[in-house]
Design a protein that fits this description.
This protein is an alpha/beta fold and 258 residues long. The protein contains nine helices and ten strands. Helices cover 41% and strands 22% of the residues.
């Protein structure tokens, strides 16, 4: 089994006691063993940290950083990125899971493709672990296509730090993960995807991403932040480019998962 170097796994945590153990166990189950898991806790009020620390006692590859004040997932991820030392960086939130071959398969894929940024398809599950569907990633994504819709599941993204450098999320409370992908694509131009599902994304009813209407203003803010567009240009692009692409994707996924 080829060792491609250390992979730093970036995980933000906030009141994640219900699922964080499953997330950590899915990472420990990786066939690729050269990784570090850097969890930044965003001032949880439950026993998330105690659960994480119980894993740290048995596995030195797991690290926990505690923020002094609640700052959001973007700051938590950036804190973990800053503390990372891996050749590669991958992302996994505290309620998601990876399949055991995720890292090895994706590293093999990136080496064969000679690509700097990659992602994969992923499965969807509910809060009781019932698999509800699949999101199939496209073969490749460019900056232009990503501007029209978020086409990469963040829990599947991995990139080569040696080639692209450390890329930090912008200081936005919401939609910073999509903004990060746009920033990464401004550097590397294209990302390549694997059809094989390598992760499981948990759909939660209390997730901020569930309320699409409230996210409209944050989508518009992404264009202003990343491309320095005016509000009017950002709004028009969102209405006439993003929304048609988004609804087309939703219809396809609905048909695919019937």
């Amino acid at each position: 089994m080829t060792d491609y170097g250390l992979v730093s796994i970036i995980t933000p945590s906030y009141n994640s006691s219900q699922f964080i153990a499953e997330t950590i166990q899915s990472i420990q189950a990786q066939s690729y063993k050269n990784w570090e898991l850097i969890i930044t806790d965003d001032c949880s009020t439950d026993n998330s940290c105690e659960i994480i620390e119980s894993f740290i006692k048995k596995d030195s590859r797991i690290k926990l950083i505690k923020l002094d004040k609640n700052s959001g997932a973007g700051v938590a991820r950036n804190t973990s990125i800053g503390a990372s030392s891996g050749r590669y960086i991958a992302f996994c939130d505290s309620d998601d899971r990876w399949f055991p071959e995720k890292l090895q398969s994706q590293l093999n894929f990136m080496n064969a493709k000679k690509c700097d940024l990659s992602y994969s398809s992923y499965l969807l599950c509910n809060e009781t672990d019932h698999i509800d569907g699949i999101v199939v990633g496209p073969k490749h994504v460019s900056l232009t296509s990503m501007m029209k819709d978020d086409k990469m599941g963040f829990l599947t993204v991995m990139y080569d730090v040696k080639k692209l450098g450390k890329i930090y999320l912008p200081k936005m409370r919401k939609r910073q993960d999509w903004a990060w992908k746009l920033m990464a694509l401004k550097v590397c131009k294209v990302a390549y995807g694997m059809k094989e599902p390598l992760a499981i994304y948990r759909v939660r009813h209390d997730s901020i991403s569930r309320n699409k209407k409230t996210l409209i203003k944050y989508n518009i803010a992404v264009y202003q932040e990343i491309f320095n567009w005016s509000y009017l240009k950002s709004l028009l692009f969102f209405l006439f480019c993003f929304l048609p692409s988004y609804f087309k994707k939703r219809l396809f996924l609905k048909w695919l998962n019937q």
